[in-house]
Design brief:
Number of helices: 16
Number of strands: 15
CATH superfamily of the largest domain: NusA, N-terminal domain
Strand content: 15-25%
Number of domains: 5
Shape: elongated
CATH architecture of the largest domain: 2-Layer Sandwich
Strand order of the largest sheet: 5-6-7-9-8
C-alpha cells in the first residue's frame, strides 16, 4: 500500500509538472516542509527531525539526530549504544547519529499532506497569474457581476478573477444585488495576501477621469486634456479641462451634443452632479471658473501663500460657498489654492433699509414655492433661512420645530424646495 501511495505521489507530481508547468523540486521541498509537523507528532524521537523524499522512488522517510548514551533517559533526544550499533557497528558513546524514525502508515499521512500542499500551491500560482494578467489594467475601468455581499463589501466576478469593493469604496447610497453588473476602477492587485485578487472603487476620483476618457473621444485622442478633478463621491465632482487647439471647445466636447456625454457619465455615477470647468493658467480666471455659477465682485491673489481672496455680493455668498461649504471646498481641491470667500463691502445705503430689502427679497423668493407660502416664508427668514439652498440643507425635525408643523409636513416642504432647485 505504501509503495502504491508513493508511486501515486510521483505520478501526480509528474502530471502537474507537465500540465501546469510547475517545478517538481519546488513542490517536493514544500511537501517535505509541510510533513515536519506531522512527523513531530507521530514519532517519539523529535530532536532535529527531518523528512526526506527520495526523488527517484518517492520513498518517504523521517530521520532524527540522536545522541548515543549508555542508558536512555530522554527518548526524544537519546538512543542507547546497543540500539545504535544494530545499524551502525562503529557507533560510540557521545556520537550523534542519524536514525530513521519513520512511523507506520506515514505514507498515507504524506499523501494527504502532499495533496493539500499541491492544491494550495496551485491556488497561489493561479492567483499570481491572474494578478499578472490584470497588472496593465491597474487604475483602469473593469466590469463584472456582483456575486454576493459580505459585511457590506461586494464580492464581484470579473470572469477570470474574483474581486471586491469595500464599503468605503462604494458611492454613498448605491445598493447592489447578486447578479447586478458593475463598472468600477481597479485600484489594487492582491497577489500575495489572502482574500480577493482585485480591489475596485467607484468612489475614487480617478473613476470620474476614466469615465470621461471612455465617453469623450477628444480626451482619448489628446485634443482635450483633463487638468484636474475634485470629487465628493455621490454628491458632486468638478473637472477642469483644456485644449491646446484653439479650435476645440473642451467644455463643449465633454458635455456632448444635447448633453449626451455628460448625461451618460452622471447616470453611471448614480446622479452625482458634475461641473465641467474651463482650465486656465491664470489663477484668477481658473478660480472664477471653478466657483461658477456664483458671480465674483473682486479677487485678490497672494502668490507667496497660494491664497485667493474672493469678494462676492451678499446674494451670491451662499451660492459661492455651496451647501455645507461644498462648492468652495471642491474649488479649493480643484485649483490647489486656498480660497477665502467674503461678502463685498456694502455701498453707502441706509443699513436698515438695506436689511429690509434683503428680508423682503428673501421672503418673496421662499414664498414662491407653493408648499410654503408667505406666512411660513416669513417664519423661515426670521429664523435665518434666506435662500432655498439653506432650507434644503436643514433637517426636517428642525423645520417642524421652528414652523410649528409636523415632521411629515416639513418633509413635504423640503421635497418641494428640492424640486424647485432642480428646475
Amino acid at each position: 500500500m505504501a509503495s502504491k501511495e508513493k508511486n501515486e505521489l510521483l505520478d501526480n507530481l509528474e502530471c502537474l509538472e507537465r500540465e501546469r508547468n510547475i517545478d517538481r523540486e519546488t513542490l517536493l521541498s514544500l511537501i517535505e516542509e509541510s510533513l515536519m509537523s506531522a512527523a513531530h507528532k507521530a514519532v517519539q524521537a523529535t530532536r532535529d527531525v527531518q523528512v526526506k523524499i527520495d526523488r527517484k522512488t518517492g520513498k518517504i522517510q523521517c530521520f532524527a539526530h540522536l545522541f548515543v548514551v549508555e542508558t536512555v533517559q530522554n527518548p526524544e533526544e537519546e538512543i542507547s549504544l546497543k540500539t545504535a550499533q544494530t545499524r551502525n557497528p562503529d557507533a560510540q558513546l557521545g556520537d550523534e547519529v542519524e536514525w530513521e524514525v519513520t512511523p507506520e502508515n506515514f505514507g498515507r499521512i504524506a499523501a494527504q499532506t502532499a495533496k493539500q500542499v499541491i492544491i494550495q500551491r496551485l491556488r497561489q500560482l493561479e492567483k499570481k497569474n491572474i494578478c499578472e494578467a490584470y497588472r496593465d489594467q491597474l487604475f483602469q475601468l473593469v466590469t463584472g457581476e456582483v456575486r454576493r455581499v459580505e459585511h457590506g463589501d461586494l464580492i464581484i466576478n470579473f470572469g477570470s478573477a474574483e474581486g471586491a469593493m469595500r464599503r468605503s469604496d462604494a458611492i454613498p447610497g448605491e445598493d447592489y444585488e447578486p447578479g447586478d453588473m458593475i463598472t468600477a476602477l481597479l485600484i489594487e492587485i492582491n497577489s500575495d495576501k489572502p482574500g480577493p485578487s482585485l480591489y475596485v472603487s467607484r468612489a475614487h476620483t480617478d473613476f470620474v477621469a476614466r469615465l470621461f476618457e471612455r465617453e469623450v473621444s477628444e480626451i482619448a485622442d489628446k485634443s482635450v486634456e483633463v487638468k484636474a478633478i475634485s470629487r465628493e463621491a455621490g454628491y458632486r465632482s468638478k473637472i477642469a479641462v483644456f485644449s491646446p487647439d484653439p479650435r476645440v471647445d473642451p467644455v463643449g466636447a465633454c458635455v456632448g451634443i444635447r448633453g449626451n456625454r455628460v448625461k451618460t457619465i452622471v447616470r453611471e455615477l448614480g446622479g452625482e452632479k458634475v461641473d465641467i470647468i474651463q482650465w486656465d493658467p491664470d489663477i484668477r480666471v481658473f478660480v472664477t471658473n471653478a466657483l461658477k455659477p456664483a458671480k465674483i465682485s473682486k479677487i485678490d491673489v497672494d502668490e507667496e501663500h497660494k491664497t485667493v481672496r474672493i469678494e462676492v455680493p451678499e446674494d451670491q455668498l451662499s451660492l459661492s460657498i455651496g451647501k455645507k461649504g461644498q462648492n468652495a471646498r471642491l474649488a479649493t481641491k480643484l485649483t490647489g489654492w486656498r480660497i477665502d470667500i467674503v461678502k463685498s463691502e456694502q455701498s453707502e445705503v441706509n443699513e436698515d433699509e438695506q436689511f429690509a430689502n434683503q428680508v423682503r427679497r428673501a421672503t418673496e423668493a421662499i414664498a414662491a414655492v407653493p408648499e410654503i407660502g408667505e406666512k411660513l416664508a416669513a417664519l423661515l427668514v426670521q429664523n435665518g433661512f434666506v435662500s432655498l439652498d439653506g432650507i434644503v440643507a436643514a433637517e426636517s425635525s428642525y423645520l417642524a420645530d421652528i414652523l410649528d408643523i409636523d415632521v411629515s409636513r416639513a418633509e413635504e416642504i423640503l421635497a418641494a424646495v428640492q424640486r424647485q432647485l432642480s428646475k
